[in-house]
Design goal:
Layout: E1 14-19, E2 23-29, E3 38-45, H1 52-55, H2 60-79, E4 84-89, H3 91-95, H4 99-110, E5 115-116, H5 119-133, E6 138-144, E7 149-155, E8 158-165, H6 169-176, H7 180-191, E9 204-208, H8 210-222, E10 233-236, H9 237-249, H10 252-255, H11 263-266, H12 269-283, E11 287-290, H13 295-303, H14 306-309, H15 313-325, H16 331-339, H17 348-359, H18 372-382, H19 390-405, H20 422-442, E12 453-457, E13 460-464, H21 475-493
Parallel strand pairs: 1-4, 4-5, 6-9, 9-11
Antiparallel strand pairs: 1-2, 2-3, 6-7, 7-8, 10-11, 12-13
Protein backbone atom coordinates (compact mmCIF):
# COMPACT_ATOMS: atom_id res chain seq x y z
CA UNK A 1 0.00 0.00 0.00
CA UNK A 2 1.19 3.52 -0.79
CA UNK A 3 2.41 5.75 2.02
CA UNK A 4 0.43 8.67 0.57
CA UNK A 5 -1.66 10.51 3.19
CA UNK A 6 -4.74 9.77 1.10
CA UNK A 7 -4.33 6.04 1.51
CA UNK A 8 -3.17 5.92 5.12
CA UNK A 9 -5.33 4.40 7.82
CA UNK A 10 -8.60 6.21 8.64
CA UNK A 11 -7.27 6.81 12.16
CA UNK A 12 -5.50 9.79 10.57
CA UNK A 13 -8.88 11.44 10.25
CA UNK A 14 -11.71 11.42 7.71
CA UNK A 15 -12.15 14.42 5.42
CA UNK A 16 -15.29 15.21 3.44
CA UNK A 17 -15.08 17.95 0.81
CA UNK A 18 -18.45 19.25 -0.37
CA UNK A 19 -18.45 21.20 -3.65
CA UNK A 20 -21.83 22.88 -3.52
CA UNK A 21 -23.66 25.42 -5.63
CA UNK A 22 -22.93 28.23 -3.19
CA UNK A 23 -20.05 27.08 -0.99
CA UNK A 24 -17.07 24.74 -1.04
CA UNK A 25 -16.41 23.26 2.39
CA UNK A 26 -14.01 20.78 3.95
CA UNK A 27 -14.62 19.08 7.27
CA UNK A 28 -12.02 16.77 8.83
CA UNK A 29 -13.45 14.39 11.39
CA UNK A 30 -11.57 12.66 14.18
CA UNK A 31 -11.33 9.11 12.85
CA UNK A 32 -13.82 6.30 13.34
CA UNK A 33 -16.44 7.08 16.00
CA UNK A 34 -20.23 6.92 15.85
CA UNK A 35 -20.62 10.69 16.20
CA UNK A 36 -18.39 12.80 13.96
CA UNK A 37 -16.24 15.28 15.85
CA UNK A 38 -14.89 18.00 13.52
CA UNK A 39 -11.20 18.75 13.96
CA UNK A 40 -11.32 21.24 11.09
CA UNK A 41 -14.28 22.93 9.42
CA UNK A 42 -13.89 25.63 6.80
CA UNK A 43 -16.00 26.90 3.93
CA UNK A 44 -15.45 29.30 1.06
CA UNK A 45 -18.42 31.07 -0.50
CA UNK A 46 -17.74 30.63 -4.20
CA UNK A 47 -21.13 30.74 -5.92
CA UNK A 48 -20.29 28.06 -8.50
CA UNK A 49 -23.97 27.72 -9.36
CA UNK A 50 -24.68 31.42 -9.71
CA UNK A 51 -26.19 32.13 -13.15
CA UNK A 52 -26.31 28.48 -14.19
CA UNK A 53 -30.00 28.64 -15.10
CA UNK A 54 -29.16 31.27 -17.75
CA UNK A 55 -25.71 30.24 -19.00
CA UNK A 56 -25.87 26.50 -18.41
CA UNK A 57 -22.30 26.72 -17.11
CA UNK A 58 -20.49 27.14 -13.81
CA UNK A 59 -19.86 30.72 -12.74
CA UNK A 60 -16.37 31.69 -13.91
CA UNK A 61 -15.56 33.80 -10.87
CA UNK A 62 -16.86 30.95 -8.72
CA UNK A 63 -14.52 28.51 -10.46
CA UNK A 64 -11.49 30.66 -9.58
CA UNK A 65 -12.61 30.98 -5.97
CA UNK A 66 -13.23 27.24 -5.78
CA UNK A 67 -9.80 26.45 -7.23
CA UNK A 68 -8.17 28.63 -4.59
CA UNK A 69 -10.13 27.01 -1.76
CA UNK A 70 -9.55 23.46 -3.01
CA UNK A 71 -5.81 24.05 -3.44
CA UNK A 72 -5.68 25.16 0.19
CA UNK A 73 -7.69 22.11 1.26
CA UNK A 74 -5.31 19.79 -0.59
CA UNK A 75 -2.31 21.27 1.18
CA UNK A 76 -4.05 20.90 4.56
CA UNK A 77 -4.97 17.28 3.81
CA UNK A 78 -1.31 16.51 3.10
CA UNK A 79 0.08 18.39 6.10
CA UNK A 80 -2.41 16.80 8.50
CA UNK A 81 -1.90 13.35 6.95
CA UNK A 82 -5.62 12.75 6.69
CA UNK A 83 -6.35 9.04 6.41
CA UNK A 84 -9.42 9.08 4.16
CA UNK A 85 -10.78 11.76 1.83
CA UNK A 86 -14.13 11.89 0.05
CA UNK A 87 -15.00 14.62 -2.47
CA UNK A 88 -18.67 15.24 -3.24
CA UNK A 89 -20.13 17.53 -5.88
CA UNK A 90 -23.80 18.43 -5.92
CA UNK A 91 -26.33 20.24 -8.11
CA UNK A 92 -24.13 22.88 -9.76
CA UNK A 93 -21.48 20.45 -10.99
CA UNK A 94 -24.15 17.89 -11.86
CA UNK A 95 -26.22 20.32 -13.95
CA UNK A 96 -23.58 22.49 -15.62
CA UNK A 97 -22.33 21.79 -19.13
CA UNK A 98 -18.77 22.18 -17.91
CA UNK A 99 -19.37 20.47 -14.57
CA UNK A 100 -17.67 17.18 -15.41
CA UNK A 101 -14.66 19.04 -16.74
CA UNK A 102 -14.32 20.85 -13.44
CA UNK A 103 -14.72 17.55 -11.57
CA UNK A 104 -11.82 16.11 -13.61
CA UNK A 105 -9.70 19.12 -12.66
CA UNK A 106 -10.42 18.49 -8.97
CA UNK A 107 -9.63 14.79 -9.45
CA UNK A 108 -6.22 15.70 -10.88
CA UNK A 109 -5.53 18.02 -7.94
CA UNK A 110 -6.31 15.45 -5.23
CA UNK A 111 -5.51 12.24 -7.07
CA UNK A 112 -8.87 10.69 -6.20
CA UNK A 113 -12.23 10.63 -8.02
CA UNK A 114 -14.94 13.21 -7.37
CA UNK A 115 -18.38 11.77 -6.66
CA UNK A 116 -20.80 13.85 -8.72
CA UNK A 117 -23.98 12.94 -6.90
CA UNK A 118 -27.27 12.22 -8.58
CA UNK A 119 -30.39 13.74 -7.09
CA UNK A 120 -31.25 10.44 -5.41
CA UNK A 121 -27.76 10.09 -3.93
CA UNK A 122 -27.83 13.65 -2.63
CA UNK A 123 -31.21 13.10 -0.98
CA UNK A 124 -30.09 9.82 0.61
CA UNK A 125 -26.89 11.34 1.99
CA UNK A 126 -28.96 14.16 3.52
CA UNK A 127 -31.14 11.50 5.17
CA UNK A 128 -28.05 9.65 6.41
CA UNK A 129 -26.88 12.95 7.89
CA UNK A 130 -30.13 13.32 9.81
CA UNK A 131 -29.88 9.69 10.95
CA UNK A 132 -26.34 10.42 12.13
CA UNK A 133 -27.52 13.14 14.49
CA UNK A 134 -31.14 12.31 15.34
CA UNK A 135 -32.07 9.18 17.27
CA UNK A 136 -34.78 7.17 15.48
CA UNK A 137 -35.73 9.97 13.08
CA UNK A 138 -39.19 9.57 11.58
CA UNK A 139 -40.65 12.01 9.07
CA UNK A 140 -39.49 14.05 6.08
CA UNK A 141 -35.95 15.33 5.51
CA UNK A 142 -35.75 18.55 3.50
CA UNK A 143 -32.26 19.79 2.60
CA UNK A 144 -32.01 23.20 0.92
CA UNK A 145 -28.69 24.02 -0.72
CA UNK A 146 -27.73 26.71 -3.15
CA UNK A 147 -28.82 24.80 -6.25
CA UNK A 148 -31.38 22.22 -5.17
CA UNK A 149 -33.93 21.18 -2.59
CA UNK A 150 -33.70 17.48 -1.70
CA UNK A 151 -36.68 15.83 -0.01
CA UNK A 152 -36.87 12.26 1.29
CA UNK A 153 -38.91 10.22 3.75
CA UNK A 154 -36.99 8.74 6.68
CA UNK A 155 -37.91 6.10 9.24
CA UNK A 156 -34.93 5.16 11.38
CA UNK A 157 -32.37 3.89 8.89
CA UNK A 158 -34.93 3.25 6.13
CA UNK A 159 -35.70 5.77 3.40
CA UNK A 160 -38.76 6.18 1.20
CA UNK A 161 -40.02 8.50 -1.56
CA UNK A 162 -37.69 11.28 -2.61
CA UNK A 163 -37.41 14.24 -4.93
CA UNK A 164 -34.73 16.70 -6.03
CA UNK A 165 -35.98 20.09 -7.20
CA UNK A 166 -34.25 23.26 -8.52
CA UNK A 167 -35.30 25.17 -5.41
CA UNK A 168 -31.96 26.03 -3.86
CA UNK A 169 -31.77 29.59 -2.61
CA UNK A 170 -29.57 30.70 -5.56
CA UNK A 171 -31.96 29.16 -8.08
CA UNK A 172 -35.02 30.77 -6.49
CA UNK A 173 -33.28 34.16 -6.38
CA UNK A 174 -32.28 33.99 -10.03
CA UNK A 175 -35.64 32.67 -11.23
CA UNK A 176 -37.54 35.43 -9.45
CA UNK A 177 -35.10 38.35 -9.50
CA UNK A 178 -35.90 38.70 -5.80
CA UNK A 179 -39.60 39.30 -6.49
CA UNK A 180 -41.60 37.31 -3.96
CA UNK A 181 -44.67 36.88 -6.19
CA UNK A 182 -42.52 35.40 -8.95
CA UNK A 183 -40.67 33.30 -6.41
CA UNK A 184 -43.94 31.93 -5.05
CA UNK A 185 -45.08 30.92 -8.54
CA UNK A 186 -41.71 29.25 -9.23
CA UNK A 187 -41.84 27.35 -5.92
CA UNK A 188 -45.45 26.26 -6.46
CA UNK A 189 -44.61 25.03 -9.95
CA UNK A 190 -42.09 22.56 -8.58
CA UNK A 191 -43.60 21.56 -5.24
CA UNK A 192 -47.30 21.25 -6.09
CA UNK A 193 -46.80 18.10 -8.22
CA UNK A 194 -45.43 16.25 -5.16
CA UNK A 195 -48.82 15.07 -3.93
CA UNK A 196 -47.17 12.47 -1.70
CA UNK A 197 -45.93 15.24 0.60
CA UNK A 198 -49.49 15.65 1.86
CA UNK A 199 -49.45 12.02 3.05
CA UNK A 200 -46.94 12.67 5.84
CA UNK A 201 -49.64 12.61 8.53
CA UNK A 202 -48.37 15.23 10.98
CA UNK A 203 -44.90 13.71 11.14
CA UNK A 204 -41.72 15.67 11.82
CA UNK A 205 -40.07 17.87 9.19
CA UNK A 206 -36.28 17.70 9.57
CA UNK A 207 -34.67 20.93 8.35
CA UNK A 208 -31.21 20.75 6.74
CA UNK A 209 -29.10 23.36 4.94
CA UNK A 210 -27.36 26.61 5.80
CA UNK A 211 -30.11 28.99 4.66
CA UNK A 212 -32.72 27.13 6.68
CA UNK A 213 -30.47 26.78 9.71
CA UNK A 214 -30.23 30.58 9.59
CA UNK A 215 -34.03 30.69 9.79
CA UNK A 216 -33.84 28.43 12.85
CA UNK A 217 -31.35 30.82 14.46
CA UNK A 218 -33.71 33.69 13.64
CA UNK A 219 -36.56 31.79 15.35
CA UNK A 220 -34.39 31.39 18.44
CA UNK A 221 -33.64 35.11 18.57
CA UNK A 222 -37.19 36.24 17.77
CA UNK A 223 -38.79 34.01 20.41
CA UNK A 224 -36.05 34.66 23.01
CA UNK A 225 -35.60 30.92 23.27
CA UNK A 226 -33.14 30.29 26.13
CA UNK A 227 -30.85 27.69 24.53
CA UNK A 228 -28.76 28.96 21.62
CA UNK A 229 -28.07 25.53 20.10
CA UNK A 230 -29.40 24.95 16.59
CA UNK A 231 -28.87 21.18 16.51
CA UNK A 232 -32.12 19.42 17.39
CA UNK A 233 -33.87 22.75 17.98
CA UNK A 234 -37.55 21.85 17.77
CA UNK A 235 -40.52 24.14 17.25
CA UNK A 236 -44.18 23.26 16.76
CA UNK A 237 -45.68 24.16 13.42
CA UNK A 238 -48.24 26.49 14.99
CA UNK A 239 -45.41 28.45 16.65
CA UNK A 240 -43.16 28.44 13.59
CA UNK A 241 -45.72 29.71 11.07
CA UNK A 242 -46.18 33.27 12.42
CA UNK A 243 -42.41 33.68 12.90
CA UNK A 244 -41.81 32.53 9.34
CA UNK A 245 -44.43 34.93 7.98
CA UNK A 246 -42.68 37.76 9.82
CA UNK A 247 -39.29 36.83 8.33
CA UNK A 248 -40.73 36.70 4.80
CA UNK A 249 -42.08 40.25 5.21
CA UNK A 250 -38.87 41.73 6.66
CA UNK A 251 -36.97 44.57 5.01
CA UNK A 252 -33.18 44.32 4.57
CA UNK A 253 -32.42 46.55 7.57
CA UNK A 254 -34.58 44.32 9.77
CA UNK A 255 -32.80 41.19 8.55
CA UNK A 256 -29.47 42.66 9.64
CA UNK A 257 -30.72 42.72 13.25
CA UNK A 258 -30.18 38.96 13.53
CA UNK A 259 -26.88 39.01 15.36
CA UNK A 260 -26.12 35.29 14.99
CA UNK A 261 -26.51 35.25 11.20
CA UNK A 262 -23.88 36.55 8.71
CA UNK A 263 -25.03 39.50 6.58
CA UNK A 264 -24.83 37.57 3.31
CA UNK A 265 -26.90 34.73 4.74
CA UNK A 266 -29.49 37.00 6.35
CA UNK A 267 -30.40 38.55 2.98
CA UNK A 268 -31.42 35.10 1.70
CA UNK A 269 -33.91 34.49 4.52
CA UNK A 270 -37.16 35.77 2.92
CA UNK A 271 -36.90 33.65 -0.24
CA UNK A 272 -35.63 30.63 1.70
CA UNK A 273 -38.58 31.24 4.00
CA UNK A 274 -41.00 31.08 1.08
CA UNK A 275 -39.73 27.60 0.15
CA UNK A 276 -40.00 26.45 3.77
CA UNK A 277 -43.50 27.92 4.04
CA UNK A 278 -44.61 25.92 1.00
CA UNK A 279 -43.09 22.74 2.46
CA UNK A 280 -44.98 23.32 5.70
CA UNK A 281 -48.24 24.05 3.86
CA UNK A 282 -47.99 20.76 1.95
CA UNK A 283 -46.59 18.42 4.60
CA UNK A 284 -48.39 19.92 7.63
CA UNK A 285 -45.79 18.57 10.08
CA UNK A 286 -46.52 18.50 13.78
CA UNK A 287 -43.14 20.10 14.42
CA UNK A 288 -39.96 21.25 12.72
CA UNK A 289 -36.57 19.98 13.90
CA UNK A 290 -33.47 21.86 12.75
CA UNK A 291 -30.32 19.76 12.57
CA UNK A 292 -26.68 20.76 12.27
CA UNK A 293 -25.97 17.44 10.55
CA UNK A 294 -26.14 17.30 6.77
CA UNK A 295 -24.92 15.48 3.69
CA UNK A 296 -21.29 15.64 4.87
CA UNK A 297 -22.10 13.83 8.11
CA UNK A 298 -24.21 11.44 6.04
CA UNK A 299 -21.15 10.59 3.96
CA UNK A 300 -19.13 10.20 7.16
CA UNK A 301 -21.71 7.76 8.53
CA UNK A 302 -21.65 5.61 5.40
CA UNK A 303 -17.85 5.27 5.65
CA UNK A 304 -17.99 3.82 9.16
CA UNK A 305 -17.54 0.09 9.76
CA UNK A 306 -20.81 -1.71 10.39
CA UNK A 307 -19.97 -2.19 14.09
CA UNK A 308 -20.13 1.60 14.64
CA UNK A 309 -22.91 2.66 12.29
CA UNK A 310 -25.82 1.38 14.35
CA UNK A 311 -24.67 2.62 17.77
CA UNK A 312 -26.82 5.10 19.68
CA UNK A 313 -25.15 8.48 18.96
CA UNK A 314 -25.74 9.92 22.44
CA UNK A 315 -24.49 6.87 24.33
CA UNK A 316 -21.52 6.45 22.00
CA UNK A 317 -20.51 10.10 22.57
CA UNK A 318 -20.98 9.79 26.33
CA UNK A 319 -18.86 6.65 26.56
CA UNK A 320 -16.14 8.19 24.42
CA UNK A 321 -15.97 11.30 26.58
CA UNK A 322 -15.77 9.26 29.76
CA UNK A 323 -13.01 7.09 28.32
CA UNK A 324 -10.91 10.14 27.46
CA UNK A 325 -11.75 12.52 30.32
CA UNK A 326 -13.33 10.48 33.12
CA UNK A 327 -11.84 8.72 36.12
CA UNK A 328 -13.57 5.33 35.94
CA UNK A 329 -15.09 4.58 32.54
CA UNK A 330 -16.99 1.49 33.72
CA UNK A 331 -18.71 3.21 36.64
CA UNK A 332 -21.59 4.68 34.62
CA UNK A 333 -23.18 1.31 33.90
CA UNK A 334 -22.86 0.36 37.59
CA UNK A 335 -24.74 3.51 38.57
CA UNK A 336 -27.46 2.85 36.02
CA UNK A 337 -28.01 -0.74 37.18
CA UNK A 338 -27.87 0.19 40.87
CA UNK A 339 -30.60 2.84 40.70
CA UNK A 340 -32.83 0.92 38.26
CA UNK A 341 -35.15 -0.40 41.03
CA UNK A 342 -36.38 3.20 41.39
CA UNK A 343 -37.48 3.34 37.74
CA UNK A 344 -39.72 0.36 37.01
CA UNK A 345 -41.98 1.96 34.39
CA UNK A 346 -39.49 3.76 32.15
CA UNK A 347 -39.84 4.15 28.42
CA UNK A 348 -36.91 3.24 26.19
CA UNK A 349 -36.31 6.96 25.58
CA UNK A 350 -36.14 7.60 29.33
CA UNK A 351 -33.74 4.68 29.86
CA UNK A 352 -31.20 5.98 27.35
CA UNK A 353 -31.19 9.48 28.85
CA UNK A 354 -30.76 8.04 32.35
CA UNK A 355 -27.87 5.88 31.15
CA UNK A 356 -26.22 8.89 29.49
CA UNK A 357 -26.68 10.82 32.75
CA UNK A 358 -24.97 8.05 34.71
CA UNK A 359 -22.11 7.90 32.22
CA UNK A 360 -21.54 11.67 32.50
CA UNK A 361 -22.21 11.98 36.23
CA UNK A 362 -18.52 12.41 37.13
CA UNK A 363 -17.82 14.92 34.35
CA UNK A 364 -16.61 17.65 36.72
CA UNK A 365 -14.49 15.57 39.07
CA UNK A 366 -11.36 17.65 38.24
CA UNK A 367 -13.01 21.04 38.93
CA UNK A 368 -12.87 23.01 42.18
CA UNK A 369 -15.63 21.65 44.41
CA UNK A 370 -17.33 25.05 44.68
CA UNK A 371 -17.88 25.16 40.91
CA UNK A 372 -18.54 21.52 39.99
CA UNK A 373 -22.31 21.86 39.83
CA UNK A 374 -22.35 24.89 37.55
CA UNK A 375 -19.46 23.61 35.44
CA UNK A 376 -21.22 20.28 34.87
CA UNK A 377 -24.44 21.99 33.84
CA UNK A 378 -22.88 24.45 31.44
CA UNK A 379 -20.58 21.86 29.90
CA UNK A 380 -23.35 19.38 29.16
CA UNK A 381 -25.54 22.13 27.71
CA UNK A 382 -22.76 23.01 25.27
CA UNK A 383 -21.29 19.59 24.44
CA UNK A 384 -21.44 18.79 20.69
CA UNK A 385 -23.49 15.67 21.34
CA UNK A 386 -26.07 14.28 18.93
CA UNK A 387 -29.16 12.19 19.40
CA UNK A 388 -30.98 14.15 22.10
CA UNK A 389 -33.65 16.81 22.11
CA UNK A 390 -33.17 20.13 23.86
CA UNK A 391 -35.50 18.98 26.65
CA UNK A 392 -33.41 15.84 27.15
CA UNK A 393 -30.18 17.85 27.06
CA UNK A 394 -31.40 20.19 29.79
CA UNK A 395 -32.70 17.28 31.88
CA UNK A 396 -29.33 15.56 31.61
CA UNK A 397 -27.48 18.72 32.62
CA UNK A 398 -29.90 19.35 35.50
CA UNK A 399 -29.49 15.81 36.90
CA UNK A 400 -25.68 15.90 36.87
CA UNK A 401 -25.66 19.39 38.37
CA UNK A 402 -28.09 18.23 41.09
CA UNK A 403 -25.79 15.30 41.85
CA UNK A 404 -23.03 17.71 42.83
CA UNK A 405 -24.86 20.34 44.84
CA UNK A 406 -28.59 19.65 45.08
CA UNK A 407 -30.90 22.20 43.45
CA UNK A 408 -28.88 24.16 40.82
CA UNK A 409 -28.85 27.69 42.23
CA UNK A 410 -28.41 29.36 38.85
CA UNK A 411 -31.09 27.37 37.01
CA UNK A 412 -34.06 29.53 37.95
CA UNK A 413 -32.56 32.61 36.33
CA UNK A 414 -31.34 30.85 33.18
CA UNK A 415 -34.71 30.71 31.42
CA UNK A 416 -34.10 27.05 30.62
CA UNK A 417 -36.87 25.96 32.95
CA UNK A 418 -39.36 27.05 30.28
CA UNK A 419 -38.21 24.13 28.11
CA UNK A 420 -38.94 21.54 30.83
CA UNK A 421 -42.33 20.50 32.17
CA UNK A 422 -42.82 19.72 35.86
CA UNK A 423 -42.59 15.97 35.28
CA UNK A 424 -39.20 16.32 33.59
CA UNK A 425 -37.84 18.47 36.44
CA UNK A 426 -39.05 15.96 39.04
CA UNK A 427 -37.47 13.05 37.19
CA UNK A 428 -34.18 14.94 36.80
CA UNK A 429 -34.14 15.58 40.56
CA UNK A 430 -34.73 11.92 41.38
CA UNK A 431 -31.86 10.83 39.12
CA UNK A 432 -29.64 13.54 40.59
CA UNK A 433 -30.50 12.58 44.17
CA UNK A 434 -29.77 8.91 43.42
CA UNK A 435 -26.41 9.87 41.90
CA UNK A 436 -25.62 11.96 44.95
CA UNK A 437 -26.33 9.06 47.29
CA UNK A 438 -24.31 6.68 45.11
CA UNK A 439 -21.30 8.98 45.09
CA UNK A 440 -21.47 9.34 48.87
CA UNK A 441 -21.51 5.56 49.22
CA UNK A 442 -18.59 4.77 46.94
CA UNK A 443 -16.77 8.04 46.25
CA UNK A 444 -16.96 7.31 42.53
CA UNK A 445 -14.83 4.17 42.89
CA UNK A 446 -16.03 1.14 40.89
CA UNK A 447 -17.18 -2.17 42.44
CA UNK A 448 -18.06 -0.71 45.84
CA UNK A 449 -21.58 0.36 44.99
CA UNK A 450 -22.55 -3.08 43.66
CA UNK A 451 -22.36 -4.54 47.17
CA UNK A 452 -25.35 -2.45 48.20
CA UNK A 453 -28.94 -2.52 46.98
CA UNK A 454 -31.83 -0.07 46.77
CA UNK A 455 -35.29 -1.48 47.54
CA UNK A 456 -38.40 0.62 46.99
CA UNK A 457 -41.64 -1.04 48.02
CA UNK A 458 -44.82 -0.30 49.94
CA UNK A 459 -44.02 3.39 50.18
CA UNK A 460 -40.63 2.77 51.80
CA UNK A 461 -37.04 3.12 50.56
CA UNK A 462 -34.39 0.82 52.03
CA UNK A 463 -30.66 0.73 51.38
CA UNK A 464 -29.43 -2.83 51.94
CA UNK A 465 -25.80 -3.17 53.03
CA UNK A 466 -23.47 -6.19 53.20
CA UNK A 467 -22.96 -7.88 56.63
CA UNK A 468 -19.81 -5.90 57.24
CA UNK A 469 -21.15 -2.58 56.08
CA UNK A 470 -19.08 -0.29 58.25
CA UNK A 471 -17.59 1.42 55.17
CA UNK A 472 -21.08 2.60 54.19
CA UNK A 473 -22.34 3.65 57.62
CA UNK A 474 -22.23 7.42 58.05
CA UNK A 475 -24.47 10.39 58.73
CA UNK A 476 -24.03 11.72 55.17
CA UNK A 477 -25.22 8.40 53.75
CA UNK A 478 -28.31 8.48 55.96
CA UNK A 479 -29.07 12.06 54.95
CA UNK A 480 -28.72 11.22 51.26
CA UNK A 481 -31.09 8.23 51.63
CA UNK A 482 -33.66 10.47 53.30
CA UNK A 483 -33.21 13.16 50.66
CA UNK A 484 -33.68 10.64 47.84
CA UNK A 485 -36.87 9.32 49.46
CA UNK A 486 -38.25 12.83 49.87
CA UNK A 487 -37.50 13.53 46.21
CA UNK A 488 -39.30 10.34 45.19
CA UNK A 489 -42.30 11.29 47.31
CA UNK A 490 -42.38 14.77 45.74
CA UNK A 491 -42.31 13.25 42.27
CA UNK A 492 -45.19 10.93 43.17
CA UNK A 493 -47.19 13.81 44.67
CA UNK A 494 -46.76 15.73 41.41
CA UNK A 495 -48.08 12.80 39.41
CA UNK A 496 -44.74 11.39 38.31
Amino acid sequence: MSDSPLTATPEGGIAVIDIGSNTVRMVIYDGFARVPFPLFNEKATCGLGRGIAVTGKLNQEGIELARKALTRFKKLVDILEVGQVSILATAAVRDAEDGMGFAEEVKDLFGIPVSVLSGAEEAELAAHGVACGVHNADGIVADMGGGSLDIIYIHGEAFGKWATLPLGHLRVQEASGGNQNKATDFIDEHLDPLGWLTESGNRTLYIVGGAWRAIGKAFIQMSQYPLNVIDNYSIKRRDAEPLLEEIIRMEPDQLLEFTSIPKRRSMALPLAGLVLKKMIDLARPEKLVFTAYSMREGKFLTTLPEKYRHDDPLLASSKRLVQTRGRFAEHGQELYDWMSPLFTDETEAEKRIRLATCLLSDISWFEHQDYRSEHAFRRIIRLPFAGLSHRERIMLAYSVSYRYDGEPKFFAGSGLGAVLDKKSVDRARVIGAALRLANTLCGGIPKILTKTELVLQQGKLDLLLPPDGVIYASDPVQRRVEALFETLQQEEANGG
